[in-house]
Amino acid sequence: MPKIRKVVSTVWYNKENYHALRNVFPEADFVYVNFYDKAKLAQEAKDADVAILLGDVDDCLLGQNTLKWVACDHAGLNGSARDEVFAKDFIVTGAAGRSAPVLAEHAVYFMLQHCYHTKELLAAQAAGHWGVDGSNTWKGLYGRKAGIIGMGNNGRMLAERLQAFGMEIYAFDKFPLRGMDYIRHRFAGKDGDTIDTILTECDFIILTLALTDETYHMFDAEAFRKMKKDAFLVNIARGGIVDTNALLEALRSGEIGGAGLDVLEEEPLPQDHPLWTMPQVYITPHTTPQVPDRAKRSIEIIRENKRRFEAGEPMLNVLKESDRFGSSDQKSGFSKLTNSGLSKEQIEKLPLDKYLGERGWSDPSEWNYVD
After folding, report:
1. Most buried among 44, 88, 178, 369, by the most CB within 10 A?
2. Is 19 among the catalytic positions?
3. Global pTM?
4. Residue 118 lies in a domain
């Protein structure tokens, strides 16, 4: 049974959550390193068994060290799915599933915005106008067809909610879907199925799949041509799954009815980008309201993975060869901050609590003890 003797961590937790994380590894040395102190992180990793990271697997961890497991505290691992990471002899895991309930809500938020023509209603309210032209033709979610592409944690949570709305659900995943018998239209890539039926029949298409070489630009000009003229696309997955130029042209030409986008290929989206002002497009800046206990959910995933690691059992949310992503230089949402190229002195002057949340501690000794 492998023994964990030393853990190094860069995650940005408050005192309560850090104390809980530290106590997942009661018998190990536990070292905190600021995420931007690459030299110290590389040094502490030399004799560490586990690294728990704010962002993706950092280049400074690809040298000589004793790491056996690297836990990235976010869901999408495409930023770590690089040749040089796969070449290392350590396990990489993520935090997929910790925010699935609110990500499902986020998708519904976009869908309802489209159904209720929120921009038009707010403009009418601001102008004191009672009624909006054409509102007698608007349709809700009930009885309409929703295609979910990607049936992992987020896709399954979303399906449960759309079922409650009375929608007819179509589901696609790489692997055959187990359970959820109320979904009659189910397709699996491993069975030779494609997303074509979803493209041609669904009123709403929601992306909840991982970004890989296989899914990069899955939604291109050809995919948009197959969609219904009034179909609404929702992307709460990763920006690279959608070809932005093809999406822009499909919206301009009326090939599709609109889009709700939380993620885009270029983040932040430039201020002068035409997507901002398109009336049928709703954009959120890669931000979803948190579940009340997101850090605690991450810690529970780490706790279970620690048990599995020591027991030699398959771990949760493991980075796999099929996750390999080399089609572009995109990384996770934390990448620009964790790999900004700014010096330690420059980063220390930034309002990090504003970007990452308030920690409420300055010295690790405030939480770094075993109960």
Report:
1. 44
2. no
3. 0.83
4. yes
